[in-house]
Amino acid sequence: EASRQDGLMQRAARRLYAQIGEREAQGKRFTVRATFLEIYNEQVHDLVEPASGALGVRGSTSQGFYVEDLSVVQCRGLHDLEYVISQGLAHRHSRHHLLNQHSSRSHAVLSVYLDVADSAEAPPGRYGRLSLLDLAGSENVRASQSSGGGLKEAGAINRSLFALAQVIKSLSLGPGRGPPHVPYRDSVLTKLLADSLGGSAHTLMIATVSPLAAYLDETVRTLHYACSAGAIRNRPVVKLDPQQQLIAKLKAEVLELKQQVEFLTHKLTHANTRLASRATDGDEQHASSLQHAPRLA
User: Fold this and answer.
1) 152: how many CB neighbours lie within 10 A of its CB?
2) Nearest 5°: phi and psi at 238?
3) Does the predicted TM-score (pTM) go above 0.70?
4) What is the pLDDT of residue 147?
5) Contacts with 271 (C-beta within 8 Å, 6 or more apart), sequence order
């Protein structure tokens, strides 16, 4: 059941399955899978199976950056997705310091993968992914008085947030205005967010700020961060199965050829009409000249 204490992940999960239910009533079929990871001290950990230890991040031209051996949960309903969220939040690293009794010490990424088929019998033809990222806030170590392991965690968080700010700045300037190279490889966080920030996705950032004057500098930096993210312009596209992509491409080519045929047919008809009109005018002039020609006695 819904609770006032539920965060964005729980609310998004319920909304997602409400939308799935509406579309399944129209005959669509959905397959849902989920992963939940954290980036702690620049290492990736599986929040569903935390015993797996640090996981490697790899990159390829076809898949982009991805996490090796990350557990994927098949979600047969809302309760399965809520289980993934609850497990992840329970296993996420946190620590108390002078400013926060329950401070997140890692960035957490929940990814929900959707495969959509047009009917119960048809194979999936469209694919999508919803990624929900909870960023750990930047930390003023003088104010928080973090030390030891907490100081190391704060340093890793601040460095990754700085790398993310550089990527967002590069993307927000747009083609031709920003640097030709976007520094995705500068941190694990920016690697895993490359497709969400600069790919074919809708990107939304929610900034949490404080009205207290004591935190004015942090508030200004956070708002600047969010404004830069809002300036990023992507071109979202529907991801299709390769066979569906081929079919869509062929349909587009057929439509283009039909339009060309219609255009040429119109031009040919117009040309034939003009030729016929000229031939008719020529016959009339010839007949008129014969009528007025002098007769021989």
Assistant:
1) 13
2) -80, 125
3) yes
4) 77
5) none
